[in-house]
Every structure is written in structure tokens, then in C-alpha cells.
């Protein structure tokens, strides 16, 4: 039973996170049936930042290098990511989306945005703006 504002917020966040995991899983599978949500997140990050060192990705997601390496190997096998020599350090590599990876990530992100837009068609713009602002404040705290 929800008894106060903090409990109500915790409950709604738990529901949102559970639904978000489901949406992430569905979105990842829209890119490739074998793709896990965590690996999809790597694709999105590479789409946002362009190319990146594996160590920077591991730090951003707070995961170990072996975990990242397994995910990157899968993404390479699926033809979604490629490696390039790092121009600033001959010993290092940079990861980037392949042309196929870029196309599939853009299509998946557009479809995801469209699904959200379709569900919020009755929401006033002010409500969406306010929710985005409040979520931004919460994310900054977390």
C-alpha cells in the first residue's frame, strides 16, 4: 500500500523501470533477434558520441572491460560495430557503428520515439515538458 509521496514516487518509478526494460528488450530485438538490451545501449551510445574507446564505454556504463569485450564481440559478429586504430594512440582501438549498425539503430530509435509519441498524443505539450524537466532533475540526483 502506497502511503505517501515518496512511496508513490518509488512505486511509479519501479513500474516505469520494469516497463522500460521490456521496451529496451523489444527495441534491441528489432535491431537483431540475438541482441541483448545492454549491447543495444552500446549502439545508442556510439550513435550519440560517434566513435569511442572501449575503456571509455566501459567507464560510462560502469561495467568491466571483460563484460564490454563480450558485448562488442557480439556486435562485431552481427556486423553492427567495427574497430579502427586510434589515431592518437597506436596501441588503442576505437569502436564505431558500421553503416548497417547506424541504419538499424536509427530505425529502432525512430520507431521507439514514434511509439512514445503515439501513446502521448493526448498529453498537452506543457505536461510533457514538465515531466521531462522533473525526470531531468531526478536523473541529475541519481
What gap, in angstroms, lies between the N and C termini?
Answer: 25 Å
Shape: globular
Strand content: 5-15%
Helix-strand category:
mainly alpha
For the largest sheet, list the strands in their spatial order: 1-2
If you compute it from the alpha carbons, what radius of gyration comes out, rounded to the nearest whole angstrom? 18 Å
> What's the pLDDT, averaged over the residues?
93
Helical residue percent? 55-70%
Which stretches are poorly predicted, pLDDT < 50 over at least 5 residues?
none
Number of helices: 6
Task: Write down how many β-strands occur, each being a DSSP E stretch of 2 or more residues.
Answer: 2
Order of helices and strands: HHHHEEHH
Biggest beta-sheet profile: 2 strands, antiparallel
Amino acid at each position: 500500500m502506497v502511503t505517501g509521496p515518496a512511496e508513490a514516487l518509488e512505486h511509479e518509478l519501479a513500474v516505469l523501470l520494469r516497463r522500460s526494460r521490456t521496451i529496451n528488450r523489444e527495441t534491441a530485438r528489432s535491431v537483431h533477434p540475438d541482441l541483448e538490451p545492454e549491447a543495444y545501449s552500446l549502439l545508442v551510445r556510439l550513435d550519440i558520441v560517434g566513435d569511442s574507446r572501449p575503456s571509455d564505454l566501459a567507464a560510462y556504463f560502469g561495467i568491466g572491460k571483460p563484460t564490454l569485450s563480450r558485448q562488442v564481440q557480439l556486435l562485431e559478429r552481427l556486423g553492427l560495430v567495427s574497430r579502427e586504430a586510434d589515431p592518437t594512440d597506436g596501441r588503442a582501438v576505437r569502436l564505431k557503428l558500421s553503416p548497417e549498425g547506424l541504419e538499424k539503430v536509427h530505425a529502432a530509435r525512430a520507431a521507439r520515439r514514434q511509439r512514445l509519441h503515439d501513446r502521448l498524443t493526448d498529453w498537452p505539450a506543457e505536461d510533457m515538458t514538465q515531466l521531462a524537466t522533473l525526470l531531468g532533475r531526478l536523473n541529475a540526483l541519481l
